[in-house]
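Dear colleague,

Thank you for sharing your sequence with our group. We've completed the structure prediction you requested, and as agreed, I am returning the results in plain text so they can be pasted directly into your records. Please verify that the sequence below matches your submission; if there's any discrepancy, let me know and we will rerun it promptly.
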Amino acid sequence: MHTAEHILTAIMKKHFGAPRNLELHLNEKKTKCDYDLPQPLSAPDVDRIQTLVNQEIANKHTVSFSFMKRSEASAYDLWKVPPEVEDIRIVSIGDFDAQPCRGSHVANTSEIGTFEIASVEERESGRTRVRFRVR
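Please find the predicted structure tokens below.
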């Protein structure tokens, strides 16, 4: 589930202008991510997101990790990394995406299953909440 969230967030950044996910709740059955988007998502956007995420899953990317010093990690978004952490763990999904993360991930995206968006909601805060599951 966590690797699917990384792929979703990369798609939201690359194709829909989200700077990052702003809030995340991972659950084995269903997950929610909040994004700050320049405009609301349309039904075709939601279909496109689902397709793009599933294409990356189907690419059978190897998921790996490495460590680097904070001073070497300036190219990464470190907002979730506590300031006292000096050794940053970078999770790479093939050549598709690489982000700092301490979470558990699959070894290959082919292990994820099928990504499905369960709902998209525009929140009062202006954020867009995407709920998804993998099967």
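Summary note from our side: Helices lie at 2-16, 43-58.

Kind regards,
the structure core
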